[in-house]
Amino acid sequence: QVQLVESGGGLVQAGGSLRLSCVAPRRTFSLYEMGWFRQAPGKEREFVAAASWTGGNTYYADSVKGRFTISRDNAKITVYLQMNSLKPEDTAVYYCAAKSRGEYDVWGQGTQVTVSS
User: What is the mean pLDDT, run by run of 10 residues, along the chain of 117 residues?
Assistant: First the structure.
């Protein structure tokens, strides 16, 4: 089954930074919109950020605007999420996803981000 592979999660203090990476399995993924989502314990999965296939258009949840930056390197078929000024409420499992057929239908296994206060 096609799957994305995330990495870069970990434990960080509030105010710190982390960069998540997501590697896609095939070059065709460079043509898809890519997004990051997160799910905190006891909560539903929520949208965090997305980038068009060129990376020229980016979208963010209000809760992360100005702190997180999504980018992509299509030559490496990799999408990044730079997270700065992290807060305890950013603690969650972060998932990468690809919109291959009009909706986010390809997902990774997730990477844990824990922000301590």
Answer: 90 98 92 96 97 92 98 95 98 96 94 97
